[in-house]
Specification:
Blueprint: E1 2-9, E2 15-22, H1 25-34, E3 38-44, H2 60-63, H3 71-86, H4 91-101, H5 105-119, H6 124-128, H7 137-149, H8 152-209, H9 215-250, H10 252-262, H11 269-289, H12 294-304, H13 308-322, H14 327-334, H15 339-351, H16 354-411
Antiparallel strand pairs: 1-2, 1-3
Helix pairs in contact: 3-4, 3-8, 4-5, 7-8, 8-9, 8-11, 8-16, 9-10, 9-16, 11-12, 11-16, 12-13, 13-14, 14-15, 15-16
């Protein structure tokens, strides 16, 4: 994604300026057109290095990987906006009321700015577009469609359902990974304690007795000495490696590399992939049902996929459809879907109910993800047990074997 500066004219003929994130200038023009802004000039912004005087402007939550706004806040915002708009409350009054009652400081600041822009004559979608870190392109597009069709309440209801489904999926994944995470943390803590307290004690005892030590004992003593002598370097190395990996993943090449590899990971890779495809199917069904053209809808849902590798696949589908290919042929060429899903897409195209069939595809992937998550712990448990067994075996061979040898020598 690149940053572009634009100058345009809104529906009232007033000049508007701003900054948008997009793949290219055509993407910026498409976003502006959806907002009823006629672009006059679009130029790519130059990336500027942060100087020492700009350190106060660094977003620490973004630096350490925290979300700008939680899904809970977005769900509450969408549900309350749905209720207020449906009740006939003016949008400006609804936004001001939401700003006063919001528990999120970032959302409160954004809503106050949005209210000011609404007072200046901007549409709600245009005002939301000024805060891309809080509101995604999919969010803004659905609001824009709701404004233009007079169904803004339905747009917020669809967004609330979408974010609620996304939240449930994340909670299930975290719940399934909680047990393996605790076991890995316990194993890591046990290794540290053994290297610091247990192994050095036995090493001193064996050195005083002068007995010949087996390979397992020598390996344990060597690893313990290395840990005790170089623990500062190990700690610094871990911290540097952690931030280096985070920095690399934030780059375009690093993000693409990681997004491509993580869907190929053993056991969890298929779960991640199907979760992304479920999100894609549901969001695509929402934008089609809202009346967004298929090519524009694919551009929007590619951002909602939150995976650069999958996003490129979806954008390739968009290019093929824009060239005259059908949705089915583009889906087959992408290699993203199973034959069963492709059959459902084919039926949807033949019957003119692509949005309904895509909703079924999303539900199908959700059911598969749910089943895999329920069996994830059972799949990981044997691996964890094998790791613990290997640790116990090495520890037993390293500590008890020389003790048994010494006991045998004393008896003789």
């Amino acid at each position: 994604m690149a940053v572009f500066k634009y100058v345009g004219r809104n529906s009232q003929g007033n000049q508007v300026k701003g900054i948008l994130d997009a793949v290219n200038a055509e993407g910026v023009a498409e976003q502006l057109t959806r907002q009823r802004v006629i672009p006059v000039s679009i130029t790519q912004a130059n990336d500027k290095k942060v100087s020492s005087n700009d350190l106060s402007q660094i977003d620490l939550s973004s630096l350490f990987g925290f979300a700008a706004i939680s899904l809970d806040d977005l769900i509450i915002f969408c549900r309350q906006m749905y209720a207020l708009v449906r009740a006939g409350v003016p949008i400006l009054k609804a936004i001001n009321g939401m700003a006063e009652t919001s528990n999120s400081d970032k959302l409160k600041v954004a809503l106050l700015d949005i209210a000011n822009q609404l007072e200046g004559g901007f549409q709600l979608s245009s005002a939301l577009n000024k805060h891309p870190k809080l509101f995604s392109p999919l969010f803004i597009s659905l609001v824009n469609v709701g404004e233009n069709t007079g169904k803004l309440d339905d747009a917020f209801l669809k967004l609330a359902s979408y974010f609620h489904r996304e939240q449930d999926t994340r909670k299930r994944i975290k719940s399934a990974l909680r047990y393996p995470s605790f076991v890995l943390i316990a194993i890591s803590a046990a290794i540290v304690i053994l290297n610091i307290f247990v192994i050095p004690t036995f090493a001193n005892m064996f050195s005083k007795l002068g007995a010949d030590l087996p390979w397992a004992t020598q390996a344990l003593i060597t690893s313990s000495n290395f840990f005790l002598n170089y623990w500062e370097y190990l700690l610094v190395g871990l911290v540097v490696t952690f931030f280096a990996i985070r920095y690399y993943i934030k780059t375009t090449a690093g993000r693409y590399f990681w997004d491509k590899r993580k869907i190929k990971l053993p056991i969890v890779g298929s779960i991640i992939e199907r979760s992304i495809l479920s999100r894609f199917s549901h969001s695509f069904a929402i934008v089609l049902r809202a009346g967004v053209p298929m090519t524009s809808g694919l551009t929007l849902v590619s951002e909602a996929a939150d995976n650069t590798f999958m996003r490129d696949k979806i954008l390739t589908m968009r290019t093929n459809i824009a060239s005259g290919e059908s949705l089915l042929r583009s889906s087959v060429a992408s290699g993203l879907f199973t034959p069963l899903v492709l059959q459902m897409i084919a039926v949807g195209e033949e019957t003119g109910q692509v949005d309904s069939l895509l909703e079924e595809v999303g539900n199908y992937y959700e059911r598969e993800v749910d089943y895999d998550l329920t069996t994830l712990t059972a799949k990981i448990e044997p691996i964890l047990i094998a790791v613990v067994a290997v640790m116990v075996l090495i520890l037993a061979l390293g500590i008890f074997t020389p003790m048994w040898d010494m006991m045998s020598a004393f008896k003789n």
